[in-house]
Amino acid sequence: MNQATPAFRIDQEGYAAGLPVCTAVLGEGTVTLKNAAGETVRSIAVNAPETDPASGDAVTLVDLGVLESGEYELERGIDRRRLSVKPRAWNAVTHALIKGLYFQRCGCGLSPEHAGVYAHPPCHTAPAAEWEDRSVRRRVTGGWHDAGDYGKYTGPGAVTVAHLLYAWKLFPRGCGEDLNIPETGNGVPDILNEARFELEWILQMQRSNGAFHNKLTKSHFAPFIMPQDDLEPEYLMPVCWCATADAAACLALAYRVYRPFDEAFANRMLLAAKRAWDWLQAHPDYVPFMNPEGVRTGLYGGRSDASNRFWAACELYAATGGPAYRQAAEQLYTPKIPLLEFGWMEVGGLGTLCCLFDLKENAGDVLYTRLKEDFLRRCEKALTLSKASGYGTALEPDRYVWGSILPVMGNAMAMIMASLLTGRQDMRDAALLQWHYALGMNALDLCFVTGFGERRVMHPHHRPSGADGIEAPVPGLISGGPNKLFCMPQTKERLSPDTPPAKHYLDETPSADTNEIAIYWNSPAVFVGAYFNTPA
Ligand SMILES: [Zn+2]
């Protein structure tokens, strides 16, 4: 990894022409911005920087304004850092984040044509047994490996697909290019081709009674081996309330998206969504998912299924217009629903997307007018967080937990939505700071997307990247980022206890708590990237 430069933290993928260019400057003194001809374009005095509570850095955000396309250099004393401004600066990284999901495909091989050096033979193709009755065996294939491990989880998968589908619905020109995947050229946008790979798997996770299995995993995580070498049996784990609601929501949303492309597929999804909803109606009392004895894979449990049911009711209403779904959504919408949460534990933000951007006024007073007011009020909190941070990062210092990239990207999604609803530029600009955070304008001076940035993640907690013998990790995967809480022993041993939260990070393979990847961290970044990548 290149040495961190002392003075400047920048978006390492560059900046977009037409949007404000913001950098983080450590310490004080006059900063000069020069163009490629060596002429001074800006000269900004930085005095008395405040200490950023999350990182401990004395840092100032410097807004350089809108700049013409070109190469620039920041200077202060002997410190120099190049930055570039160009049209579609984030096109490659946005599409790589979508393609990153292709590299997570399970139940098939990845061919050299589409995966290059990361090709591998088919994995996880054997029939799975139901955990509760091993005599019941079913072939359930496809889907994405969830994260650094090889498990597949219904709820997180449904949330991931929803992020992609809303990215495409709202910002089709920001995420619509070919990805060089097996389906490319079939007349369907590749982001939808990739999402369908997961949807076909989700459909297989439904039981005959309408409920969804929580997950398809082994009893424990595999060692760091390639997926095709992971041959221990997989099990369909018990059903789960949250997973059933998330699947219902996602499939109802997907029905609307895919209907113009493949009506039979769309109808199959709507039927599955309705049956899942009926099961939830017949089982109103929430039962939290617990790992059965002897199972140690991801839990993905929740405290309640209220926001999951809310999202499902919204999507089923949008899909069918059925008044019972609207009534259910209105009843489920309470102040307790976290509207700025986009998964996997709470999904109120996804229900909000459905109501405010798809149903709109048709949703009525409760699900449009009141929800919009409530949502916009809560977005002020995200904006306040961004303003309180030296790097503009919309995250409380104590929320740097496992997968801290998710709330950062979630707040960016919320502020983009707020900006679209109100036309407010301050919301858009604060959302942009979160995107810069992901791409390097952070206390670590690190671009969190593998394969991108001058200072890049090289050792994500990701089994294929650790086992394939290739130095560079699989590209297009976003790291979970700093985590001060729930640390694994190795991280505790390697980092001093007084390391600030925003720097509590190790780019080392065993450091799952700071450097794992996950499909549902990639996907909110796709939403944010697609928005900022949309041509003016
Ligand atoms: Zn697999």
UniProtKB/TrEMBL annotation:
Gene3D superfamilies recorded: 1.50.10.10
Residues covered by the Glycoside hydrolase family domain: 93-528
InterPro entries: 6-hairpin_glycosidase_sf, 6hp_glycosidase-like_sf, Glyco_hydro_9
GO BP terms in the entry: polysaccharide catabolic process
Pfam families found in the cross-reference section: Glyco_hydro_9
MF (Gene Ontology): hydrolase activity, hydrolyzing O-glycosyl compounds
Keywords assigned by UniProt, alphabetized: Carbohydrate metabolism, Glycosidase, Hydrolase, Polysaccharide degradation
Protein name per its UniProtKB record: GH9 beta-1,3(4)-glucanase
